[in-house]
Amino acid sequence: MLESFGAETLARAQFAFTVSFHIIFPAFSIGLASYLAVLNGLWLKTRDDTYLNLFNYWKKIFAVAFGMGVVSGIVMSYQFGTNWAVFSDKAGPVVGPLLAYEVMSAFFLEAGFLGVMLFGRERVGDKLHMFATLMVAVGTLASAFWILSVNSWMQTPTGYGIAENGQFVPEDWWAIIFNPSFPYRLVHMVLAAYLTVSFVVGAVSALHLLRDKTDKESRRAFSMAMWMAVLVTPLQIMAGDVHGLNTLEHQPIKVAAMEGHFEQEGNHQPLALFGIPNEEEGRLDYAVQVPYLGSLILTHTLHEQIQGLNEFEQEEWPPVTIVFFSFRVMVVIGFAMLGLGLWSLLARWKSRLYDWSWMHRAALVMGPSGFIAVLAGWITTEVGRQPYTVYGLLRTADSLAPVDAPAVATSLVAFAVVYFFVFGAGVFYILRMMNKRPATPKIGLRDGPIRSAGITPAAQVDPDFIPGE
User: In this structure, how many other beta carbons lie within 10 angstroms of the beta carbon of residue 30?
Assistant: First the structure.
């Protein structure tokens, strides 16, 4: 059945499948590494064991997520040579060094200090352990820096020349790395990672608060997560707005698809809240619109005109329906995050942050919202770039390796089967860890089994304690 599709469609589906699995793990580990650094720093400053218990709890989850992110990233990168060899050949002189910088700096930094962060506190001391934790956090951010630089260059290519053999060759590395869309996309992605983790932490803490409202670690973690939601969500909305202005400047077709604008309506473009894009007829069916608001949001004025899709050749359009709806999923989730954050502020004001069960249930439901928003944003960005791999320069159809559809279909099925088993098991294990409380109740020393077993009291404080060490 899959062989009935063309090789290009199957190759795009395979890359979309693997990158969708991959991106959720870096998005989680970027935010969680910074959260671990904050927890460790607060414990060193206050010596409050609540922070230490939370650190030991979340570092195990981080280790599993980091491992799955590495494995899924390696699998994804192989497709550049198998399915997209022409792209690799033409863009390799630019893309290759940037990916190498990511491995040699960010990944080596993460891998080099990860073991110290996970297992080295008793062996290297608190200060060096804190340094290792910070380096892991810096490494994850550096990884985001280089990957977003590569992807942003593919969206807004600058600093290149074209050789006689058709390859893109670097002429100005500064312009390549800091291309026009890179700063906006980096900020947007890092904030998305932080929000993803804050809502996961909030959901896990809410789960345990629903079971026991006196759980100290869950109360502390829930409070921190809701502060993050309140402070970061408005920043993310503003960052998304500025990013949209940048996209309108460099990729107006993508913005027209995101907004469902088929016709140019002067300086009074409406905002389409909902509709069904009709690409064949070039219009938005069943549109629910707010007059003038589209122009105001997209240009911050009522004077500039916005181009519609019908002003461009239809062969330059991305798949409008996918971009239109994925963008709305991301926006709706963003405002839902803001709503939960404001709800938590009201609860704080009424001193009911740990008592309102309905808010805790809402936080539990919002747990995966960050992942969904990241995926929706990534789909908007990547599908909206079509029909190009390097925007305006190298079309996707011209980037494909000389592969046959049956071969790509076979590997796609194999990936799907292996991914669902391997990563399904990993996610199931993470959920099982999250289902446990951050700290177990301490057992009394006088008559309890710990003393009789000859285990020292350190076992009650350090969840990683192993008898005999």
Answer: 24
Report residue 386 as tokens: 């079509």
* Distance (Å, whole) CA 461 – CA 457: 7
Question: Is the Cβ–Cβ distance between 122 and 148 less than 8 Å?
Answer: no
Rounded to whole angstroms, what are the CA distances from 236 to 149, 373, 375, 434? Answer: 19, 12, 16, 27
Q: Which two tokens stand for residue 283?
A: 């219009």
**In sequence order, what are the residues at sequence separation of 6 or more whose Cβ sits closer than 8 angstroms to the Cβ of residue 161?**
168, 169, 170, 171
Q: What percent of the chain has pLDDT over 70?
A: 92
Q: In sequence order, what are the residues at sequence separation of 6 or more whose Cβ sits closer than 8 angstroms to the Cβ of residue 59?
A: 36, 117, 118
**What are the tens digits of pLDDT across the range 390-406?**
998 999 988 888 888 88
Nearest residue to 246 (alpha-carbon basis) of 141, 366, 156: 156
Look at strands 283-290 and 388-390 and give their pairing: unpaired
- Say whether pTM exceeds 0.85: yes
Q: How far is CA 349 from the centre of its chain?
A: 31
Which tokens hold the place of 284? 């938005």
**Closest by alpha carbon to 17, among 413, 429, 333?**
413
